[in-house]
Amino acid sequence: MKRLLLLATGGTIAGCSDDCATLNDYTAGVLGGDALMAAVPQLQDLVTISVQQVANVDSADLLFAHWRALVGRIRDAFAADPDLAGVVITHGTNTLEETAWLLQLLIDDPRPVVLVGAMRPATALSADGPLNLLQAVQVALSSEARGHGVLVVMDGQIHGAQRVTKVATQGVGAFASPGSGPLGWVDDFGVHLPTAHGSRQVPFAGLALPEQWPQVPIVYGCVEPEPLILTACLNAGVGGLVFTGTGAGQLSAAERSALQAWPGERPLMLQANRCGSGPVHKNPHDQRLGLLPAGSLNPQKARVLLLLALLAGWNSDQLIALITASL
Ligand code: ASP
After folding, report:
1. Residue 75, SS3?
2. If phi over 0 gives left and psi between -120 and 50 gives alpha, with beta otherwise, what is residue 228?
3. How far is the centre of ligand 1, averaged over its atoms, from the C-alpha of 153 (Å)?
4. What percent of the chain stands above pLDDT 70?
5. Residue having the nearest C-alpha atom to atom 1 of ligand 1
6. 3-192: which CATH number, 3.40.50.1170, 3.90.226.10, 3.40.50.1820, 3.90.1300.10?
7. Taking 90 as the threshold, does the pLDDT of residue 326 lie above it?
């Protein structure tokens, strides 16, 4: 029988409430990975799964230390066991896309790494976690998933780590990949994914993650923004910053002046947008202020990329080269 590693981190998929009719009032991250598996007896005929509990938290409370542990466990497991078929990670849905993208940038192995969560707690009527978990395992075991990088399986859809994002606060179909759609789907008839061609670029494959990570805040543009937020971040000596502009990443005049007036050295800064889809392109005026375009990455994924670039000691030319070539 094939073997998988299941890394459990918590979230609603492991959440519990006293009332099965309650979908919103529950505690996330209560059940362990073994209990999640026990709710899907069909797994026993399919695969041998070893479970490691990396955390049991609401994904809003994930820490860089959890990310570091996840990356270490995956790298170790793949290195130690050439016959391991893949890895499944149970995760809260709120920040699942950030973890997926982090792993996509760091894990260099063609074997599937699949993240899965649930929108309803494990105790709910019609909880979606068990079926999502079964389908995530089916994807992780499939030859079709090989070479696709890190995948997210929710509600029968298979998404790629770069585009996937949570787009709804309620309902089981809360994930989408704006601009491209899901990569495929999984159903009774199998895993439907196009064959992955060529080798995938893994920009931070060899990066060892330290304990201490830089501060990288996200500043959000709006009508009559408070430019003090930008100045306060710069004054605080942040390692990097993601500016989320309006439209295609635009700054207000007040924010532009705040950046222009900043007397110190500017940290690495990425310019994302708040539209939900579409790129931010190179703009010479904004680049003079130190803002580099985040391409099609949403602000939270731009932040993940910037964190890793800072940890790797990249300069702006290296960052721009990666973004313009592939993001
Ligand atoms: N609060 C939960 C979390 O992100 C939401 C979920 O898992 O759906 O951990």
Report:
1. helix
2. alpha
3. 15
4. 100
5. 58
6. 3.40.50.1170
7. no
